[in-house]
Amino acid sequence: MPKDGGIGSSTKRREDVRFLSGTGRYTDDINLHGQLYAHFVRSDVAHGKINGINADAAMAMPGVVRVFTAKDFEGVGGVPCGWQITSIDGSPMQEPKHPVLAEGKVRHVGDPIAVVVAESLGQARDAADALEIDIEMLPAVMDMKEAIKDGAPKVHDDLSSNLCYDWGFVEDNKDAVAKAIADADHVTTLELVNNRLVANPMEPRVAVGDYDMANDEHTLYTTSQNPHVIRLLMGAFVLGIPEHKLRVVAPDVGGGFGAKIFHYAEEAFCTFAAKQLRRPVKWTSSRSEAFMSDAHGRDHVTKIELAMDKDNNFTAIRTETYANMGAYLSTFAPSVPTWLHGTLMAGNYKTPLIYVNVKAVFTNTVPVDAYRGAGRPEATFQLERVIDKAARERGVSPIELRRQNFITEFPYATPVAVEYDTGDYHATMDRVLEMADHAGFEARAEQSKKNGKLRGFGIAHYIEACGIAPSNLVGQLGARAGLYESATVRVNATGSISVMTGSHSHGQGHETSFAQVVSEMIGIDATQVDIVHGDTSKTPMGMGTYGSRSIAVGGSAMVRATEKIIAKAKKIAAHLMEASEGDIELKDGQFTVAGTDKSVAWGDVTLAAYVPHNYPLEDIEPGLEETAFYDPANFTYPSGGYACEVEVDPDTGKVDVLSFSAADDFGNVINPMIVEGQVHGGVAQGFGQAMMENCAYDADGQLISASYMDYAMPRATDLPMFKVDHSCQTPCTHNPLGVKGCGEAGAIGSPPAFVNAVIDALHRGGHKVEHINMPLTPDRVWTAIQNS
Amino acid sequence: MEMTGSRTIEAPRDAVWDALLDPEVLKQCVPGCTEMSGNADEGFEATVVQKVGPVKATFKGAVTLDDKVRPESLTISGEGKGGAAGFAKGGADVTLREEGDATVLDYRVEAKVGGKLAQLGSRIIDSFASKMADQFFNSFKEAVEGPSAPEGEADDAAAPVEAQKEKKGWFGRKKAAT
Fold first, then answer.
1. Taking CA atoms, what residue in A is nearest to B117?
2. In which element (H, E) is residue A186 found?
3. Which of A251, A430, A552, A743 is most exposed, with minimal Cβ within 10 Å?
4. d(CA A386, CA A345)
């Protein structure tokens, strides 16, 4: 095992030893005695009425134990939504029931209708073919703008329309924004689509339900980013199991990207069926199933207007967005286009007036929810694209237009309700231009021209809000949960430490970086610190990992708990050395009395805590274990400048990304290697969105990009070597580590940089193309050139 | 997906019309059809085995003939369920017009697939449907005319082997019988 260092060292990831040697334990590796296999029978039409299900033939098939349909779930709750949005008119969003198995109607391709449970997976699948399901096709609701017109077919018959909510933010600014736009010297308008994506974690979703009849205890093993959230949602809202009788375990998880935050019907099903059948029930998603049952991401259609005065100072921004919710409300779906999107519309710029309108719409598609960045990529993309267009219309440099409008004084309260605590946008802009050798670009562009190619330079500057979130604030905004994080630091008698964190690691490397923090604080070797996560029976109630919150919120909880440990250990050390508590110092794992040569080692103190023969029992309890819950005072605001250089072949429309540079300000950095890896992954996903990936439906609601033959995932050969830098650091002012979070930045900041580069290349070639919707495939780029 | 095409069939229009309503002819002409029962008025039950890209499936479903205007036009529609493979639906608007002694058959075909077929086969579904339509109408022409039709066209070469087994076309046999 590599030796760990403290804060700031690029310690190799300890978890990689098991991942790379094939000894990781993923949910699918869990097989319980007597386990049965569930196969979900899913709708192959987008919208239809279920006239009947005949399971007689399927029940008679070999190995079949039971066939479940919606009837078995009468009296069971629906899959809940965790965030309520209020419309402009004050009414709450329309919230349809989301049954575990489809009741009466199917509402998207992939909607589960029945489940066959059998002794083997093969038997379950064979029997599924024998199910007779009579579905009458109904017209599919696909286009968002059509869907909310009067008389459009309805996804949910019991709702008044397909409009989930109509949200205005900040509504009080609406008229002032309209006036500023009317009075502006220039208004740049851009209409664009933020393409629907599929998260595609390497490990598909898996659920294993188990029931212990003797103690009436349920256990769910699942591929989750937040086991406590699943326990709360499933226990309280779906199945009615009290928390002390329900254990949720999310062991090694092979990537989540948001799609594994949410509570899914399959989890509830396996837990429910295990009790019904008194045997463990396992479901493993196939890749095809993942495409039509994992929550999708993005899918916004937006119009943005940017108003400027005669000197090109931004005076107002107005946006109108249609956000696709899909057929049901996934766990956090309503929050993504609103509070995670509208609040970021200021970007890095001091625009005094902003108004955001979002209409969330139900369609006959897979539910849409948070995907790496969640709302912030959508905000960044439209803003950074419209600024580039504005620069072109005004004949100024897109870099200078950004610089001129940068926020430079902190803290800065935006007109969209958030307060940036710190940042230095000129520094990251300077750094990225240097990394990308912007000064040498024109010479390279000349060279490309000689080769018959069009070279373009794209710049984007982003801000995001992460480290989510202050519970009292999100409560006011409609969250049905708190967003604190927890940690228990358990010091063992011999001095080793187990940290039970409410954060969850599914690729982020917490077992390494979290151990670096605790070992640094105490001054012991990091190998003495173990990070335990992902099991509700082991860790305190925690909210899990998403929104780049683990180190900023979970890490802060761990710091607070470790501070309590150190404070108590000092009391014990003071007693052992017969000194005053105030004189005790802890350094490199040794407690010393200031100004003397007296010392006791960390291990002496921890042993005394558990063998309290010589111990201040009248003042403090034995043992050394502390828990802290940390609720952040504000979001954190990472920011950065991204630059991309592309070469476009004007004859074919093919785009080659030649270089990509990222200068991020993440505040303090715990493990630079892990941070770099997070940025690489984020930028690769941003590249995927910008250049290759697209989740496509046909007009009938058939999902036509549901395999890797049609859904193009980026591969290493598609990408250049990324230049990544995080030397610009303005530490967060309100958490103990001064950290901001780095997990989503790459996916937030990079798409506009890619697109800006391609549009720049086309203009340099004389093609007046203002916008191309992502992904910028050769076909789309070539078509845009032909139409220009 | 919509395709159009036409075939010139060396047979009188009434004969072509009758052939279109004959289950034996349909069975022979629907590519991959292994079973066909029923009649033109009440519809047919059909079993079709087809491979679309990576998905091979047995489709069971119904074929109906609607909007019949003898001997000018009708609509053939079919819908088949392929179990785990999903479903396929298709329809053809067929019109017949006389051109000398021959009959010109014009068609407009629409095809839809759902489920796994759409998920895995959408890229190739257009070319697949186009091929299916070609095969159907070539076989039909073949079935009506017989393989040794006097003015054989290049299309005949593409006709499936099964259709060529018959020595005489449907029209020829009917004539011989009367």
1. A704
2. strand A186-194
3. A430
4. 12
Return the exposure string of A461-496: e unless at least 16 CB atoms fall within 10 Å of the residue's CB, then b. bbbbbbbbbbbebbeebbbbbbbbbbbbbbbbeebb
The domain that contains A80 carries what CATH number?
3.90.1170.50
Taking the Cβ of residue B126 and every Cβ of chain A, the question of whether any pair is shorter than 8 Å is answered with no
pLDDT in the model for residue B47: 92
> Where is the domain boundary, A579, A597, A630?
A630
B148 in any annotated domain: yes
- A477 three-class SS: coil
- Dihedral of alpha carbons B125, B127, B130, B131, sign: negative
Strand, coil or helix: A268 = helix
A696 domain-assigned:
yes
Q: In B, which residues are within 8 Å of A702 by CB distance?
A: 112-115, 118-119, 122
- Three-state SS annotation for A62-90: CCEEEEEEHHHHCCCCCCCCCECCECCCC
Is position A333 within any domain? Answer: no
Contact A709 B115 (CB under 8 A): no
- Bigger pLDDT: B80 or A574? A574
Question: Rounded CA gap, A734 and A632, in Å?
Answer: 8
Q: Residue B164 maps to which CATH number? A: 3.30.530.20
Of all residues in chain A, the one with the smallest CA distance to B123 is A710
Domain that holds residue A397: 376-466+635-787
Q: Could you tell me how many residues make up chain A?
A: 788
**pLDDT of A448 higher than 60:** yes
Query: What is the tens place of the pLDDT at every residue in A263-297?
Result: 999 999 999 999 999 999 999 999 999 999 999 99
CATH number for the domain spanning A507: value is 3.30.365.10
Give the CA distances from residue A487 to residues A221, A244, A253, in Å, rounded to whole numbers and listed in that order: 21, 19, 20
Residue A316: inside a domain:
no
pLDDT value at residue B126? 78
Average pLDDT of chain A is: 96
Q: Which residues of A touch B (CB under 8 A)?
A: 44-45, 109, 125, 128-129, 288, 291-292, 698, 700, 702-707, 709-710
Residue B7: what are its φ and ψ, rounded to 5°? Answer: -130, 140
Residue B115 lies in a domain: yes
Do A129 and A269 belong to one domain?
yes
Same domain, A458 and A514: no
Say yes or no: B165 contacts chain A, CB-CB below 8 A.
Answer: no
Using a CB-CB cut-off of 8 Å, the residues of chain A touching B80 are none
Number of domains in chain A: 3
Q: Does a cis peptide bond (omega within 30 degrees of 0) precede residue A170? A: yes
Query: Which of A71, A79, A544 minimizes the C-alpha distance to A295?
Result: A79
Residue B82 is part of which domain span? Answer: 2-172
Instruction: Indicate if A518 and A454 belong to the same structural domain.
Output: no
Q: Are residues A496 and A621 in the same domain?
A: yes
Judging by DSSP bridges, how do beta strands B43-52 and B55-69 pair with one another? Answer: antiparallel
Instruction: Give a yes or no: residue B145 inside a domain.
Output: yes
**CB-CB: which of A45, A288, A710 is closest to B114?**
A45
Reported pTM: 0.93
pLDDT of residue B147: 67
Q: What pLDDT does A244 receive? A: 97
pLDDT of residue B81: 87
Domain identity same for A661 and A738: yes
With contacts defined as CB-CB under 8 Å, which chain A residues touch B1? none
Q: Is the residue at B92 inside a domain?
A: yes
Q: What is the mean pLDDT of residues A382-404?
A: 98
Is A417 within a domain?
yes
Same domain as A681, residue A556: no
Q: Count CB atoms within 10 A of the CB of residue A296.
A: 23
Cβ distance B122 to A291 less than 8 Å, yes or no, reads no
Q: Do residues A89 and A228 share a domain?
A: yes
Do A748 and A639 lie in a common domain? yes
Half-sphere exposure of A515 (CA within 13 A, CB side): 28
Of residues A458, A55, A115, the one with CA closest to residue A268: A115
